[in-house]
Amino acid sequence: KAKKSISQNYQFYQPEMEDEMAERLSLLRKLRTDFSRDKLELWYQPQISLSTKQVVGMEALLRWPVADGQYISPAVFIPLAEYSGLIVEIGSWVLEQACQQIKHLASQGYNNLRIAVNVSMPQFRNHHFVQTVIDCVNRYSIDPALLELEITESVVMDEPKIVIDALQKLKNAGIKVAIDDFGIGFSSLSYLQQLPLDRIKVDRAFVREVTEPAGEVIAQTIINLGKRLGLSTIAEGVETVEQQQAVEAMGCDEVQGFLFAKPMPTAELLQYLAANNTEKVAKS
Ligand code: C2E
Ligand code: MG
Ligand code: MG
Ligand code: MG
């Protein structure tokens, strides 16, 4: 046993791991600085109804520009922000931006477009979270039903009681909730009935394989599950017309993916909405 712990310590002190730690810490410092200097951006990816072929909303996605057109992926910096707790502040900023955007869109005549915001576990652990969200909606006097929170299965599984409780309060306030990346956590089925959800997002991994037999079965099962529970379903990561037609035939309600639009900054979003690129959506 002693030997094992010595070898574990030895492993821990591998120089390349130290380098990696140092690198992450320096990246986190840079994130903190850039966030405090208002350098983060919130981009938007349209979501399209398969029944009307119209844009019905969008997902807000963080972007961290670093140097001449380069961005650090959220897949890299979100885990750092979560680990350090910085995501609580960043998340409040994202929420504020999203509510402001809902208000702005309404002023441009788009008064029925919802915005979905991703929420991490450290935000739920914060006792002020629910009130922060409700205050934000009130401050901009927007329709709470136009704000949607996206949570992943891992968030639910981490602290089911805290999350269910918070979601119930948010639902009572009229705010919508979607479960993100559904199907890859595969352990939250037991909680599905207790969660006050509005929408299930079929994970990109299943959409990618939806035209193959195995992928087809899983996507159809998730969509059926959503239907049986009275929830709306959206397929994420739709990149081809074949994938769109497949999920459409399965009865999926909405789609989001590069086939329609990539995430874009506000100015471009307004152009996209004005151009109302519906012809890109194949007619069924
Ligand atoms: P997510 O919430 O599952 O977001 C969907 C991701 O899929 C986004 O990646 C989006 O750009 C990408 N995507 C959409 N359509 C397609 C497609 O057709 N093909 C491909 N290959 N990708 C597609 P992104 O923007 O890099 O974000 C990655 C993750 O970072 C998000 O996954 C989310 O978990 C997290 N994230 C992003 N913004 C926020 C935020 O404001 N707060 C929190 N807590 N997490 C965020
Ligand atoms: Mg999401
Ligand atoms: Mg997702
Ligand atoms: Mg994801």
TrEMBL record:
Molecular function in Gene Ontology:
cyclic-guanylate-specific phosphodiesterase activity
Q: Which residue ranges does the record assign to the EAL domain?
A: 24-277
Question: Which of UniProt's keywords are assigned here?
Answer: Phosphoprotein
Alphabetically, which GO biological process terms does the record hold?
phosphorelay signal transduction system
Q: Which domain of life is it from?
A: Bacteria
What name appears for this protein in its UniProt entry? Diguanylate phosphodiesterase
Parent sequence residues shown? 463 to 746 of 746
